[in-house]
Description:
D-Maltodextrin-Binding Protein, domain 2
Amino acid sequence: MNTARLQRRRLMLGCAAAAATLGAPLHVFAQPAWPARPIRLIVSFSTGSGNDTIARELAIAMTQSLGQSVVVENRGGGGGVIGTEAVAKAAPDGYTIGLGTSSQLVMNVGLYRSLPFDVEKDLHAIGLVSRTPLVLVGSADMPGTLKELIALAKAKPGQVSYGSGGPGSISHIVGEAFAKAAGVQLLHVPYKGNGAALVDLSGGHVQLLFDGLISTAPLARQGKLKMLAISGNKRSPMAPTLPTFAEQGLHDYEAYTWNDLMAPAGTPPEVLAKLNTALNQALALPAVQARLAQGASDPLGPTTPAQAEAYGRAERARWVPFIRSLHIDNP
């Protein structure tokens, strides 16, 4: 009997010890506060592009506010599809985010019959960044005015080439829209990002490109390209001598891009909130505002994730039907 009691006592003490062992260190296994390691910011276009420049400025500012490095990773190709897919299919833990653009979130939706992700189901906006008017630039040997360019393109249908950041990129779609508005036929030459297209434009290998002031103005000052027109209802203070498309006869033509930060769908709301706060704080910094101003970009923040989501839906409602009406042949 005494032996049985002793065995039961040992069993009970053993269970109590096990329970204490399991219960006491639970805090050791608790998830560390986010962020606990560096954050990857995917840019779906090549280094040197306007979007890449903005992303790197944001990365510097957000690193300071989040206390962890925000590292830019360029994943160019497919007009932004490759990089967007990488974000959409990443773990929804806040450690992979992306710079979203109108190319990825609007133009590709209208251009491609199918995509390896659903923009509205697989991605979630963190917040808006900026809206940027685009500039039509020509190689150094091209005419110096829009009127002369249109006359040349009409005289040589299908022979004047324009580069783009790839099929479905904003520079592709606004190029097609320009050709339609001007009544000309242009030859589309896609690249893996506008940065590569700009290099070839400077070398005279392609004749036209739509891009932002931040990347084209320095090359124009060096005489490597000519700025022909800027989108918008007024001239930019960053290029006061550059006339708008409307001034030169294309009154209903618009060419602009916008961007946001995005995360995989399913990212915890508290993580989205921290990223949103870091983004809005970055947009308020003089260094970031100065960088945006260099490209004639207007900040769209501060915004909430919900406001950024609504903005993207409105842009798709506006542009997707128009893109499909162009009947651009793509898979």
